[in-house]
Design brief:
alpha/beta; 36% helix; Aspartate Aminotransferase, domain 1; 387 residues; Aspartate Aminotransferase, domain 2; seven-stranded mixed sheet; four-stranded mixed sheet
């Protein structure tokens, strides 16, 4: 039991690691430091304590920390302008989290569907979009969903990467689809390019909204600013969060021109959505990440790591199965030992995570140095030898 465990609802399985400081790629405790290979579950894409982000936060705090969305804030407006000018988006709605961004997207799709006699929203097997009632409705079935049903009606789950399923289900009744190009929580499952291209073709044909969940895959994680860029398509909506706020709570729904007037005044809102301090931090972050030289280095780093993963699998094929990787979003299938691999890494001063039951998930800082990569692989081999 952790020190303060008795005061919280028992919804987290907290580790007995009390973090007292975070800097660069490392987390520090009183016992020592740990290489954070999940970057706070994908939030800290350029590590912790980045000077530009801290300076932006301090500058904004001295101006004001919060005002109502009834008033204009330059920093919030500048961030919205940046996202619109550097992506497909025509309009932005800021929220506090990824789940809230999904909720905004679902509301838009449902209103659009109601206006056009379309009553089905499609989601996918093994997909994950959050834990609120709306986002759970488009998330793959779990014990929890069974315990709290009924959820939102009109949602149909179909098979991920199945061309047959999308051809059968994207039709005149389909209001929209929600998809991750890489399913993080589901086990780092990467969509086939043909599958994503076909979804875009069919949604355009039948007038269905294509919402891509980029909460974990976006903001440089895959070596592109958004992961959909790898697939040669442009969606109608994108839900973003995690690293979007530079380490502070921030989410966004990005909307193209076609659908930017579906939600009208009073249809949606958020007291803290687009908080000025979070926007200051986020803008400082994306200006560093959304740079082709930076993103090229991410792709090069990812490729070097992929070569080393394959070499390790060659030596430990009895333990390591499939290598699933797009940029710095990495999943390694563990043939056995998934239940103890996180603690073995922790013993070696490295933080990792297991998802999808038996997939070692890595979401390292995009700024991981060559020395830190060498350190990780050195520790990985020790872990494999102890399994």
């Amino acid at each position: 039991m952790t020190k303060y465990n008795e005061y919280f609802l028992p919804v987290y399985n907290r580790k007995e690691l009390n973090i007292i400081k975070a800097e660069g790629s490392y987390l520090y405790t009183e016992q020592g430091k740990y290489l954070d290979m999940i970057a706070a579950l994908g939030v800290n894409v350029i590590g912790s304590s980045n000077k530009s982000i801290i300076d932006a936060i301090q500058d904004q705090i001295h101006r004001y920390m919060h005002i109502s969305n009834f008033y204009e804030s330059d920093i919030v407006g500048e961030y919205a302008e940046y996202l619109c000018k550097h992506t497909f988006a025509n309009k932005v709605f800021f929220s506090n989290s990824g789940t809230e961004s999904i909720e905004a997207g679902l509301k838009l799709i449902k209103k659009y569907g109601k206006q056009n006699n379309k009553d089905i929203i499609l989601s996918f097997s093994k997909g994950y979009h959050g834990r609120s009632l709306g986002s759970l409705s488009v998330t793959a079935k779990t014990k929890l969903t069974n315990e709290i049903e009924p959820l939102i009606p009109g949602i149909k789950s179909i098979e991920f990467n199945s061309l047959n399923d999308i051809e059968k289900n994207i039709n005149d009744r389909c209001a929209g689809i929600i998809i991750e190009t890489v399913q993080g929580q589901g086990g780092v499952n990467i969509a086939d390019k043909e599958f994503i291209v076909k979804i875009r073709e069919l949604t355009e044909k039948f007038g269905a909204v294509m919402l891509v969940d980029e909460i974990q895959t976006g903001i440089g994680r895959t070596g592109k600013f958004f992961s959909f860029e790898h697939f040669g398509v442009v969606p109608d909506l994108v839900a973003s969060a995690k690293s979007l706020g530079g380490g502070l709570p921030l989410g966004a729904l990005l909307v193209n021109k076609k659908y930017s007037n579906i939600l009208e005044r009073g249809d949606h809102g958020s007291t803290f959505g687009g908080n000025p301090v979070s926007c200051a931090a986020g803008l400082a972050l994306v200006k560093q990440v959304n740079d082709e030289v930076f993103l090229l280095k991410v792709r090069e780093k990812a490729e070097r790591m992929n070569v080393r993963f394959k070499k390790l699998r060659g030596s430990y094929s009895d333990i390591i199965g499939d290598i699933k990787q797009l940029g710095m979003m990495i999943g390694l299938e563990m043939k056995y030992g998934a239940d103890k691999v996180t603690s073995l890494f922790e013993n070696e001063g490295v933080i990792v995570n297991v998802t999808g039951g038996n997939v070692l998930r890595l979401l390292p800082p995009l700024t991981l140095s060559d020395d830190e990569i060498d350190y990780f692989f050195e520790k990985f081999e020790i872990v494999l030898n102890n399994m």
